[in-house]
């Protein structure tokens, strides 16, 4: 790795830490920094080893993960924001620059996290009848967990958890439908701490079993050059066309999103190249930043990695990860298509040129130098789609990253891919007789590389650093997932989720009944209007909640509360889950807390709020697509309603509607648009997008005058062909 590559990585990481609170570690003194780095590396090694050689007992695995995560949080996040960015001196009451209180909280977190795995054999007799020590340990864990999340993520999530625990305790005093018998503190701790319905529940289990491995894979794949290869390929593919760098941004973010699963990481990595290029070409700074940040939010919805919520979907719905990947393909394409069309129309309207041949990389050289970087992703997909578990696929993908990062010998790369394929065909991929020799060969190559030269040592050090950074990415989401366990636990203990669902559907029905009197019954029936207003309220709450809560936590909360409401109205579970997932992700570009947009604005030197507003406008395709697949589930492919005719009808209508809406916002389609054309195109887009034949025909009728005038004006403006 060159010095230039290292400097880019350092700069990108500093930007991530600036805008992502989960990555903002406080500066540490050398001795403490080594301890923290060692613990982070040990956490990555624990997950890497168990993914390949066998997971531990469920509660033990989750307990060890949480002990690492919570203990590290008190070492790397200060109690006050004012202390987060300054290097504290080492004193008797602050050994290593960290206060004795933080060391004590870290120790308490470790002990309380490991207590449940320690008493596991007696747990069946303790649930429902906790001892005083159980209650004390559970109380201690709840307190340190809430404080850890406050430090790493912020106030909103712990506040929601505290309010819900108060609701569980003071149930008899609650008004109306929210009243319930209440629970003693001992019963609350019992449910949240000793059962699998609370802190040690699905959310923590998914992060500890799936999410961590894929975060680590994404970091390693980027380090071995896969991210750079994707960006270069995007440049070759789209750079020469009108507004080239903006289109490179979209294609690059789509490809990079396949391995990152993070909006902010996508923005700073791809944006470090595309944002300056867009500005040089003439795009306004805020528009350049908005294009990159909007495209980058696709990272959490783009298969095969996606965000943590995708793995939670697997557990909640009891479906395979392959099913989730297939369902996510077309909606993700619609998101990028929506951004692409607005960028294309903006480039045509402004007369933006493409990148010159001198500015573009040579595709043959790009593939010659970078094709081996694709091997880890190929291995991951081959194992995953051969029916193996997601964490085993991640194990072999990570192993491939280590191999590529250590040595780049084409024969060895192809040999490793052939060995994995052969092991799958022979059914020995999980056998220790296969795993151990491959593992030993990789370790031997690492040792040989280390002894070869200083460059070899630098490669190994960079791989070790990638394992450290991968664990660093996962700390905040691990603590948030455990806290969401408290929220889910209270919901299951009190049944408040179904009460909220009933209130939402009742309110939506009242609004629908009131408006239904003024709308034609042939087009708008009561059930359809009720569903529409339920979706609107759910989307609004998702975006509002996303302003202060991470996407993963947002998804779990809304699935617990809103999915039952959608289920009551006949929406299939996987469709309801995708709906709240998409609107949770949208918060990354929705002001006032649009973290991805603000990261892009910082890189472009643009106004953050203006960037956020523009990014939200560019991301309207993502905002509309969830409504489309609720009314036309065939878009998700895996639903029972899927047929090829219905699929093409839904997708075709969605694409045409997105084109019209993009033209309306930009003011340009085939030629500049007048005000009435923009309004009519925007109005026509909505019924065309709606996957219902009558509405589509109405939309086409509205769009026809716009299309005719645009064709006529485009012919008028076209320069004459020379004789």
From TrEMBL:
Membrane topology listed for this record: Multi-pass membrane protein
Gene Ontology CC annotation, any one: plasma membrane
Location within or outside the cell: Cell inner membrane
Transmembrane segments: 33-51, 63-79, 100-120, 132-149, 156-178, 198-221, 250-275, 321-345, 366-388, 394-420, 432-451, 471-493, 500-523, 529-549, 556-583, 589-606, 618-638, 644-671, 683-708
Domain TRAP C4-dicarboxylate transport system permease DctM subunit: 142-414
Keywords: Cell inner membrane, Cell membrane, Membrane, Transmembrane, Transmembrane helix, Transport
A Pfam family annotated for this UniProt entry: DctM
Domain of life: Bacteria
Sample GO molecular function, one term: transmembrane transporter activity
Role summary: Part of the tripartite ATP-independent periplasmic (TRAP) transport system.
NCBIfam families in the record: TRAP_fused
UniProt protein name: TRAP transporter fused permease subunit
């Amino acid at each position: 790795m060159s010095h230039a590559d290292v400097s880019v990585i350092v700069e990108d990481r500093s930007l991530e830490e600036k805008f992502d609170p989960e990555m903002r570690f406080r500066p540490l003194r050398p001795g403490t920094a080594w301890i923290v780095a060692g613990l982070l590396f040990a956490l990555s090694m624990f997950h890497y080893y168990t993914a390949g050689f066998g997971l531990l007992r469920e509660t033990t695995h989750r307990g060890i993960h949480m002990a690492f995560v919570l203990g590290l949080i008190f070492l790397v996040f200060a109690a006050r924001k004012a202390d987060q960015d300054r290097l504290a001196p080492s004193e008797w009451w602050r050994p290593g620059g960290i206060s004795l209180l933080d060391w004590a909280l870290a120790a308490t977190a470790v002990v309380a996290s490991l207590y449940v795995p320690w008493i596991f054999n007696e747990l069946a007799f303790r649930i429902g009848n906790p001892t005083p020590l159980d209650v004390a340990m559970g109380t201690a864990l709840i307190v340190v967990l809430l404080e850890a999340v406050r430090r790493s993520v912020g106030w909103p999530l712990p506040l929601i958890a505290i309010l819900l625990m108060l609701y569980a305790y003071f149930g008899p005093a609650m008004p109306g439908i929210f009243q319930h018998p209440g629970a003693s503190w001992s019963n609350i701790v019992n449910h949240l701490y000793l059962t699998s319905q609370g802190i040690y529940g699905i959310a923590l289990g998914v992060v500890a079993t799936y999410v961590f491995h894929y975060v680590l894979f994404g970091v390693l794949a980027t380090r071995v050059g896969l991210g750079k290869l994707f960006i270069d390929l995007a440049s070759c593919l789209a750079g020469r066309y009108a507004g080239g760098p903006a289109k490179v941004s979209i294609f690059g973010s789509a490809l990079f999103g396949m391995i990152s699963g993070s909006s902010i990481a996508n923005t700073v990595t791809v944006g470090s190249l595309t944002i300056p290029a867009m500005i040089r070409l003439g795009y306004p700074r805020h528009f350049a930043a908005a294009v990159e940040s909007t495209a980058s939010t696709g990272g959490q919805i783009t298969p095969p990695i996606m965000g943590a919520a995708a793995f939670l979907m697997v557990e909640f719905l009891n479906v395979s990860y392959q099913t989730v990947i297939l369902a996510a393909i077309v909606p993700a394409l619609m998101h990028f298509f929506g951004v692409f069309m607005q960028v294309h129309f903006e480039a045509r309207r402004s007369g933006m040129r493409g990148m010159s041949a001198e500015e573009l990389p040579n595709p043959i050289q790009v593939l010659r130098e970078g094709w081996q970087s694709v091997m880890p992703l190929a291995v991951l997909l081959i194992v995953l789609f051969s029916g193996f578990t997601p964490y085993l696929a991640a194990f072999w993908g990570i192993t491939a990253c280590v191999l590529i990062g250590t040595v780049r010998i084409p024969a060895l790369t192809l040999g490793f891919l052939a060995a994995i394929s052969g092991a799958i065909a022979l059914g020995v991929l999980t056998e220790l007789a296969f795993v151990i020799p491959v593992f030993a060969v990789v370790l031997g190559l690492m040792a040989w590389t280390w002894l070869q030269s200083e460059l070899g040592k630098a490669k190994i050090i960079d791989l070790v650093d990638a394992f450290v950074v991968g664990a660093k990415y996962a700390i905040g989401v691990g603590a948030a997932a455990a806290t969401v366990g408290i929220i889910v636990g209270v919901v299951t203990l009190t049944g408040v989720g179904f009460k909220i669902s009933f209130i939402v559907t009742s309110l939506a029905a009242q609004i629908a009944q009131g408006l239904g009197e003024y709308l034609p019954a042939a087009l708008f029936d009561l059930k359809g209007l009720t569903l529409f207003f339920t979706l609107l309220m759910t989307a609004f709450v998702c975006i509002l909640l996303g302003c202060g809560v991470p996407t993963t936590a947002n998804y779990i909360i809304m699935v617990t509360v809103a999915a039952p409401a959608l289920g009551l109205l006949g929406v299939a579970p996987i469709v309801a889950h995708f709906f709240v997932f998409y609107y949770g992700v949208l918060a990354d570009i929705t002001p006032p807390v649009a973290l991805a947009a603000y990261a892009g604005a910082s890189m472009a030197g643009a106004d953050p709020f203006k960037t956020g507003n523009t990014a939200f406008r560019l991301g309207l395709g993502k905002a509309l697509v969830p409504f489309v697949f609720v009314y036309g589930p065939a878009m998700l492919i895996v639903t029972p309603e899927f047929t090829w005719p219905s699929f093409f009808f839904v997708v075709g209508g969605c694409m045409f509607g997105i084109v019209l809406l993009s033209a309306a916002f930009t003011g340009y389609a085939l030629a500049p648009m007048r005000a009435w054309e923009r309004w009519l195109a925007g109005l026509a887009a909505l019924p065309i997008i709606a996957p219902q034949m009558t509405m589509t025909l109405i939309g086409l009728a509205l769009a026809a005058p716009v299309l005719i005038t645009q064709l006529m004006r485009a012919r008028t403006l076209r320069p004459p062909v020379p004789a």
